[in-house]
Amino acid sequence: MGTMRNMISDVRGMDRILSTDxxxxxxxxxxxxxxxxxxxxxxxxxxxxxxxxDTIFTTIPCLEMEEVPITECCDLNLDMLxxxxxxxxxxILEGNYQYxxxxxxxxxxLGGRGTxxxxxxxxxxxxxxxxxxxxxDAYYWISNDYLYCTNSDTKTIRLVxxxxxxxxxxxxxxxxxxxxxxxxxxxxxxxxxREFYLPGYLKKQVLDLTKKALKESYFSIPTDVSxxxxxxxxxxxxxxx
Length: 241
Hints:
Elements: H1 4-13, H2 16-20, H3 26-46, E1 58-69, E2 81-85, E3 101-106, E4 115-116, E5 118-119, H4 122-129, E6 139-143, E7 146-149, E8 156-161, H5 169-172, H6 184-187, H7 203-219, E9 223-224, E10 230-231
Helix pairs in contact: 1-3, 1-7, 3-7
C-alpha cells in the first residue's frame, strides 16, 4: 500500500493533460480516487472478499461510551440501561448485507483488544430479550449514527471498519483511557502522506477508472444533437474559411 499522494502522482503521470491542468487539484483527484476505491471494494466485500485482510480497514482506537436507557433507541417499555457512543460515529460503508465492519471490541482495561462484541439489529435484540434463556453475550448495533452496546458498563470501544471519508486527527488520536494512542509524528502528518488503504490487485483498476472519470468530467466535448451529432456547431451556422 502507498499514500494518497503517491496515488495522485500516479494518476497525473498517466496523462499529460491531467499532469498540467491547474483546475484539477490534488483534492479533486483524491476525492475521485477515494470514491472509485470504495465502489470497487464494496463490490468485492459483497462477494465475501477482503473481510480478513488489513488492507481496507481503519481503526478508531478509542470510542467513548455512556449509559443511556434502552428506550432511547427503540419502542420498548423496559427499565434497562445500555451504553451508547458519546458522539456520532463517522459514516461506515454499507454493503448489500451489512455495514463493512471487521470488528467491534469493548476496552474496559488498558492493553489488549478487549471483548469481541457481536453485531445485531435492535429489533432482533428486542426479540432475544423476550426469550427466557437469553445468552449473556454482549451485542452492538448502529442507530441514528450512534453505536450502541448492550453492556451498560462498557466505557470505551475499539471500532475497526471501512469508513466513507478520511478520519480526523481527533478521532484517530483520542485523549481517552484506552492505552497509548498518541503518536506526534502521525498526528502532524499531512493526510495525503498517510497510508491509503487499498488492496494491491485493485490499484491499476482504480487508477484507470479515476483517469477516465476525470477526463470525461473536465474534457468532454459537447455534442449538438440538433445537428446530427456534429460537435460544437449550430444547425444554422455558416462554416468559415
